[in-house]
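Entry:
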Amino acid sequence: MTPAVIQLAAEAAERQSAEVTDWGARIAWVIGLVVFIAFVYWLMRQGWKWRGALQNDLPELPATPDGLPAHRLALTGRYHGSTTAGQWLDRIVAHGLGVRSRVELTLTDAGLDVVRPGATDFFVPTAQLRGARLDKGIAGKVLTEGGLLVVTWAHGDKLIDSGFRSDRAAEHAAWVEAINLMNQSITTEGAER
């Protein structure tokens, strides 16, 4: 072998082994990415707080009264959130209504008791219930057609749609019928007076 060939082979071997990771640049990129993700999270949190401040006029949620009558229906499942009635993307976050959670719903002659472990419980008196329907979505959650039980109720001067999904979706139809029958009897009683 000639000295020129040996030198070319040595230079080629040196070029292949010279590719070493630039740890400083890699660490800088990782830190930059973490800072960017933290900044986006902070912006989302500020937006959530801002939305809550805009809905500050919403009164406190009613608590469950003592001595509720026997329940008509009960279900366990998920609470997916509340929106302004008829506007399925206008999420309400005030008083914890925007927090998703497990739910235990109980319908009595006195109203709808919403028990949410880890979130604020509330009670909707019968006079405030406006109706129920099956729907496919509410802010942040879209399901198959009829996969969501949406209960419309009045709170203060605002109509609210709250979305629930039972662990057994076949129960939804009975809930819609029971709540709508309660609403008709309230309307009928009010018209007779």
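The first strand starts at residue 71 and ends at 84.
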